[in-house]
Amino acid sequence: ALLSFLPLIPMLTLLAVECVALGDLAREFDIELRARDYARLLLGALPYQVVLAVAAVRATLREAFGIGHWEKTDHSGAHL
Questions:
Q1: pTM of the entire structure?
Q2: DSSP codes, the chain
């Protein structure tokens, strides 16, 4: 049961470092932070980690099945 909590250690460490970095960034550029900014950082961390995990699993499966072609987004050239 204790081993199931091991992934929380790096995630909580990362959140603490990101909170410190956000405060340092605000101090460096003289930006006023509100509690809402920290809440958005904390609430967005879990969905962000889920997206990263899905991308990692997808990349691992592509590598395991030998799918190595480049996936590009089709563009219509409208910007030209």
A1: 0.68
A2: -GGGGTTHHHHHHHHHHHHHHHHHHHHHTT----HHHHHHHHHHHHHHHHHHHHHHHHHHHHHHTT-----------TT-
